[in-house]
Amino acid sequence: MDGAGRLTRSLRSLGPQADLRAAAIGAAVLLREYVGAHLARRRRRPAKRPQVIIDREPPNRYILMVERYLPRRIGLVATLAILFGSLGLGIVKGGHLEEFTAALSDTRNALANTAGFRITTVGINGRKQLSQDEVLAIGGVNGRSSLLFLDADTVRAKLKANPWIADATILKLYPGRLQIDIVERTAFALWQQNGRLSVIASDGAVLEPYVSRRFLNLPLVVGKGADVRAHDFLALLDRYPQVRSVTKAAIFVGERRWNLRLKDGLDVRLPENDVGNALAALSRLDKDEKLFSRDIVAVDMRLPDRLIVQLSEDAGKARDELFKDKKSKKKAGDSA
Predict the structure, then answer these.
(1) Residues 199, 215: contact at Cβ < 8 Å?
(2) For helices 275-289 and 226-237, what crossing angle results, to 10°?
(3) DSSP symbols for 284-334
């Protein structure tokens, strides 16, 4: 200020002291903040509990092996397994398994149909007795089925389980065509047992447990076991058309032999063995002696060396009267 430089010298001489003082003040402030923060953390920290050391035995070696080799998160997997197992058990015990399976099947079929695998065309060859809807229903194919998830072997097995279908072939033609070729059995005869009529095939399989009008002209076999023995016997009877044309029913007796019931009510009792010769003799008797036109009710051919004919009641009375007349005439002649 006085131009001699005194103010400048005083400032230079005070510089280091001012710096030391400022550093001391800063250090004091930092120390106070650090101590305060440390005390605050100690007040918030819970007091440590005294540690108790418990002496325990070392774990079993089998437990150590399980802990070592058991996969991680096995507890979670076991819990999920128990959960799904309980769910499945509840479905089965509650009787909802079929509904649950059907729902899953419908869901996946719906997804496949959305993706373009809907069954749009169905071709069925070989059907005569069954309609197209019946074939599809038997095979389990419906409007919700998709070609992608359709099991051809399952459909074939269901079709073959039907008595009308002897064999079936299933072809899946992607993306949406199903081809079904079936071989139907032929209605062979009517089978009567315990008063009930059924339509049977040549192998004895029951095709229908009732008789439709279109089957009324089939040959009739009666009795237990007649269903499986009818094919061979009717084939033998066909060799003698004169007998076959007048036969109303073939009756299997005692699962051993056959009787014939003719259309006029005549019963023919055939032998257990050598049936072909008996039918041949019966055909000759009708051709030569007009056997079937006589007033008789039964012909017994069971004995190999004789033929027994049973007359009707009227024929028997007429025969008795004839013998009486012959006897009376003979007595009158003897007395004369």
Answers:
(1) yes
(2) 50
(3) HHHHHH-GGGSSEEEEE--STT--EEEE-HHHHHHHHHHHHHHHHHHHHHH
| Alpha-carbon Rg for the chain in angstroms | 53
What is the tens place of the pLDDT at every residue in 158-173? 999 999 999 999 999 9
Distance of CA 66 to the CA centre of its chain: 45
Judged against a pLDDT cut of 70, whether residue 225 lies above it is answered with yes
Residue 3 has what pLDDT?
44
Give the tokens for residue 138: 């038997």
For helices 132-139 and 152-160, the axis angle rounded to 10 degrees is 110
The half-sphere exposure of 207 on its side-chain side, counting CA atoms within 13 A, is 22
Residues in the chain: 336
Site of tokens 């419906």: 142
Helix (H, G, I), strand (E, B) or coil at 215: helix
The region of weakest confidence among 34-38, 182-186, 201-205, 324-328 is: 324-328
DSSP 8-state assignment for residue 33: H
For residue 47, with 0-12 CB atoms within 10 Å meaning exposed, 13-18 middle and 19 or more buried, which class applies? exposed
Q: Where are the beta strands (DSSP E) in the chain?
A: 121-125, 165-173, 177-184, 189-193, 196-200, 206-208, 220-222, 247-253, 257-262, 267-269, 296-300, 308-311
Q: Is the peptide bond before 175 cis (omega within 30 degrees of 0)?
A: yes
3-state secondary structure of 122: strand
Rounded to the nearest 10 degrees, how much is the dihedral formed by the CA atoms of 161, 165, 169, 170? -60
Query: pLDDT, tens digit, for every residue of 73-120?
Result: 565 666 667 766 666 666 566 665 566 566 677 788 889 888 999 999
| Residue 298 tokens, joined | 């039964």
What was the pLDDT predicted at 14?
44
